[in-house]
Amino acid sequence: MTRHRLSGHIFGFLCAVALAASSARAARADLPDMPDPVHVSLDKTDPPPMDDMRQLALQGDARAMFILGDMYEKEKGGLRKNWPKARKWFEDAGRHGLNYAFIRLAAMAKHDRQPKEAWQWYTLAIEGFSDDSDDDGASATLGYVIQARQDLVKSAKLSEQDIAAARASMAAWKSVRDKASSGEKSTATASLQPQNNLKLNQ
Length: 202
What we know:
Elements: H1 3-24, H2 51-58, H3 62-74, H4 83-95, H5 100-111, H6 115-131, H7 138-156, H8 160-191, H9 195-201
């Protein structure tokens, strides 16, 4: 099994678990989420935990980015809990078109009592799932996210000014994303140029 297929299987499993957990959370609120033991290297030559997944993420695999975000958020896979790193990987996954990552970012923002930020992530998820006709589960997930955003507006009592501020923040995030995407495409195009052209440009 290739590493890309492995990341796909793990990502599918995590999405299924997340959706099941959202409906059962109230019934098992008294059960703690148990983290995995943190990896302790016994040999200097041992690779760090989740090294293969990290390499895939660095190569642009959005599913691998999502999995690393999940592992860092929940202290799984031998990785020590690190929410800044979890957010970073979830954002990277979102930038690379994985809309489920925005739902996780919204949940983290709600946990940190940042409702305007959560509204931003929910809205990005709504936009993404609305355009994602290739995802069989997009329609059901879209309905869930729309309802979650409506509930957020009511519970946090977000005003029109709050939502306007969230929209402005979202626009700034999109601008950064689009510039980064353009840079990646330019780099990829340059790497496909004939070797003699590269030499002339050096």
